[in-house]
């Protein structure tokens, strides 16, 4: 060390008093306790905030899930109403026209084959019963076709449940 440098350091160093003046700050042990409390509160607040955010997001997801379900339900309801209306209309028109048709066939059988009126009506009634059975089977097949699937709702619900389950898992250490 050069003498000039040593002289510059000696002039810059202040004299340290032998006794420190009294301060208004609390002792170091009180500061350590307060810091420990503050540090302990921060993770609790962070966890509380994160849980609150998860709860809000969960409620929003549930609201969206309900809206999707309502949408699919109304769409499926329309799909169910249409065949019922068609069957009712077909029933009314078919019944009226079938009666007239069967009576005409009965009269034709009487004249063409010289059958008794009761026999012609019996044959025509048998044909009418077969036609009714076929129509009923077709209607049952139409109603058994899957119409309400809620596929979108199911898929979204499973995906949302998986995301929430992953959020709730404790972190790996």
How many helix segments? 4
Q: Rg to the nearest angstrom?
A: 45 Å
Indicate the mean pLDDT.
77
- Measured as a percent range, the helix fraction is over 70%
What percentage of the residues does DSSP assign to strands (E)? Answer: under 5%
How many angstroms does the end-to-end distance come to? Answer: 53 Å
Inertia-based shape: rod-shaped
Largest sheet: none
Number of strands: 0
Question: Unreliable segments (pLDDT under 50, ≥5 consecutive)?
Answer: none
Order of H and E elements: HHHH
The chain-level structural class is mainly alpha
List the helices and strands and how they pair.
Blueprint: H1 3-12, H2 28-113, H3 117-144, H4 151-168
Helix pairs in contact: 2-3, 2-4
Give keywords.
single chain, 173 residues, mainly alpha
Summarize the structure in words.
82% of the residues lie in helices and 0% in strands. The chain contains four helices and no strands. Helix 2 runs antiparallel to helix 3 (117-144) and helix 2 packs antiparallel against helix 4 (151-168).
